[in-house]
Specification:
Shape: globular
GO molecular function: intramolecular phosphotransferase activity; metal ion binding
Helix content: 25-40%
Number of helices: 14
Oligomer: single chain
Family: Belongs to the phosphohexose mutase family.
Number of domains: 4
Protein name: Phosphomannomutase/phosphoglucomutase
Keywords: Isomerase, Magnesium, Metal-binding, Phosphoprotein
CATH topology of the largest domain: Alpha-D-Glucose-1,6-Bisphosphate, Chain A, domain 3
CATH class of the largest domain: Alpha Beta
Structural class: alpha/beta
Cofactor: Mg(2+)
Number of strands: 21
């Protein structure tokens, strides 16, 4: 019987429970299918600290090598370190991680050479079809095929050097920085990247532990940065940084212990990257980032391009437009000089450079980039996602002061607010984001839309 992988293969990655939804034999098939679809004669593989990651990565490597591809294993790494390896070595890559999901989950983020994304429209559908067809009898033997080699290589030092070459930190003032790695891969990368900087590093939860004993490694959930906020205040630190499980996302806390909107970080980095590129260039932002983002981009000479949510989509837009930078509401930050891939670490270095280059505290520095009030993402479990979206549009459809678009879910925009409601790619959820010019308007719109969602 052919396996149904619809619950495992998502829009832009593979993610599910191990071993209930997938295991090492299935990972081996993914390795073989990945090589067949990408036509790669060599690939690079990395993995996070989850208990199942080394075995799944090794199985994927066996499947790839059996198809004739030479495999370079870089071992424990962050997702952006895998993207670095894919870019620097010019090889397709696979990263074994489930990011911030609970310990029983694992997944694969795949890319072509140069960290180009593999999503539903760029090879993932074909990979899924092959694995489903091979699930009963295994991948067919290709003869004559000489098995590829499997070798190991450490890329951490080179990754750190590449990032530090993209941001001038030579003249920053000493900074005290608390970093919460959430027992994820930030505990592996931060010590090396920060090693030569004038930074008094206060580490939190740097022990690599894929069971996440202290808190979920998802800094977008406010409860997961409470420890960091308290520690920033207790230490009198200049700022705090929180990384997610695979350390490709970075969330910032200011000196007051307040969480900083990823949109404000997007605007800050956009301004810096535009200045670095002579005051011109295209910057990508997804449709859930703040109104502040396109405003700041235009004010600094750039051209904003609005796109849907998701790293594969952002990367595709980056490549199509030759964009210099891209940012998402979820604290993913993409750089042309990092093969259009996302790296929270590089965004963090930009924040350190901006803060360390002046005397103002972070809250004051960022005030110019944080102009509106936002709800953050509010999730609701909904059985009939399409029906709820239709009902929401109908409820607002007869108002002349509102415009709609359906680039990604449903976005409604008025003079004083906007909201977006979109379906999750991975769960039976509708995700609501609202922004307004003041708190009172925000609360009214948020509550009104949530009533419709949860009706």
């Amino acid at each position: 019987m052919v396996a149904d992988l619809s619950q495992l293969v998502k829009a832009y990655d593979v993610r599910g429970v191990v071993p209930d939804q997938w295991d090492e034999p299935l990972s081996e098939l993914f390795g073989a299918a990945f090589v067949q679809v990408t036509e790669a004669d060599a690939i690079v593989i990395g993995h996070d600290m989850r208990p199942s990651s080394p075995g799944l990565a090794a199985a994927f490597a066996r499947g790839a090598a059996a198809r004739g591809a030479d495999v370079t294993l870089i071992g424990l790494c962050s997702t952006d370190q895998l993207y670095y390896a894919s870019g620097a070595l010019d090889l397709p890559g696979a990263m074994f991680t489930a990011s911030h999901n609970p310990a029983r989950y694992n997944g694969i983020k795949m890319c072509r050479a140069g960290a180009a994304p593999v999503g539903q429209d760029t090879g993932l559908t074909e990979i899924r079809t092959l694995v489903e067809n091979w699930s009963t009898d295994g991948a067919p033997v290709q003869a004559p095929t000489t098995p590829g080699t499997i070798t190991e290589r450490d890329t951490l030092t080179d990754y750190a050097a590449h990032l530090l070459g993209l941001v001038d930190l030579s003249a920053i003032r000493p900074l005290k920085v608390v970093v919460d790695a959430g027992n994820g891969m930030g505990g592996h990368t931060v010590p090396t990247v920060f090693a030569g900087l004038p930074v008094d590093l206060v580490p939190m939860y740097f022990e690599l532990d894929g069971t996440f004993p202290n808190h979920e490694a998802n800094p977008l959930d406010p409860k997961n940065i409470l420890d960091l906020q308290a520690r920033v205040l207790a230490e009198g630190a200049d700022l705090g940084l929180a990384f997610d499980g695979d350390a490709d996302r970075c969330f910032v806390v200011d000196e007051r212990g307040s969480g900083v909107s990823p949109s404000a970080i997007t605007a800050l980095v956009a301004a810096r990257e535009l200045a670095r590129n002579g005051g011109e260039g295209i910057v990508i932002h997804n449709l859930i980032t703040s109104w502040s983002v396109p405003e700041v981009i235009r004010e600094n000479g750039g051209t904003p391009v609005r796109t849907r949510v998701g790293h594969s989509f952002i990367k595709a837009e980056m490549a199509e437009h030759g964009a210099i930078f891209g940012g998402e509401h979820s604290a993913h930050y993409y750089f042309r000089d990092f093969w259009n891939a996302d790296t929270g670490m590089l965004a963090a270095l930009h924040v350190l450079a901006a803060l360390g280059g002046g005397d103002a505290p972070l809250s004051e520095l960022l005030a110019q980039y944080d102009r509106y009030t936002g709800s953050g993402e509010i999730n609701s479990t909904v059985d009939d996602q399409t029906g709820r979206l239709t009902a929401i549009k109908a409820a607002y459809g007869d108002r002349d002061d509102i415009t709609f678009d359906e680039l990604d879910g449903l976005t409604a925009t008025s003079m004083d607010w906007w909201f977006n409601v979109r379906a999750s790619n991975t769960e039976p959820l509708l995700r609501l984001n609202v922004e307004a010019r003041d708190e009172k308007t925000l609360a009214a719109v948020r509550d009104e839309v949530l009533t419709l969602i949860r009706a």
